[in-house]
């Protein structure tokens, strides 16, 4: 079992907009398909706290430096990964861009439109955390 983390990065001054990544490759073991939308997420490295994983993954996948604001209740994952989900905000103004072939693009998206599929397919493991974020932090939009 892997330990992992994901982060919901919110746009400054606009908490209904979240930063997503568009997958650049497929990995059926973790339910990832090329072109699918996801939160910045990944497995923890040795002795890394889940919150540190979330900060690192956000930087590696989006180029943005972030800070953690909250931890969402509950966990996400599949049969191979147990993860925590955090809410974060950007502390750097300019991204350096996605790293590597595993990310095709980064985009800001309105959460309600993401959840109803207007931006395309969302990794199944990310639906529950995004819904929990909406219900906890944007109660008038549910």
Walk me through this protein's architecture.
The chain is α+β, with helices and mostly antiparallel strands and 142 residues long. It has a single domain, classed as Nucleoside Triphosphate Pyrophosphohydrolase (Alpha-Beta Complex), CATH 3.90.79.10. Strands 1, 2, 3, 4, 5, 6, 7 and 8 form an eight-stranded mixed sheet that branches. Strand 1 and strand 2 form a beta hairpin. The termini are far apart.
- The CATH topology assignment is Nucleoside Triphosphate Pyrophosphohydrolase
The chain-level structural class is alpha+beta
Computed over alpha carbons, the radius of gyration is 14 Å
User: What value does the average pLDDT take?
Assistant: 88
User: What fraction of the residues are assigned to beta strands by DSSP?
Assistant: 35-45%
> How many E-type strands?
8
Order of helices and strands: EEEEHEEEEHH
The CATH class is identified as Alpha Beta
Uncertain runs with pLDDT below 50, 5 residues or more?
none
Principal-axis shape equals globular
Secondary-structure arrangement, i.e. CATH architecture = Alpha-Beta Complex
Total helix count?
Answer: 3
Please bin the fraction of helical residues: 10-25%
Number of domains: 1
List the helices and strands and how they pair.
Blueprint (H helix, E strand, L loop, with lengths): L1 E10 L2 E10 L13 E2 L2 E3 L6 H13 L3 E6 L4 E2 L3 E10 L12 E8 H5 L11 H11 L5
Parallel strand pairs: 1-7
Antiparallel strand pairs: 1-2, 1-4, 2-3, 2-8, 5-7, 6-7
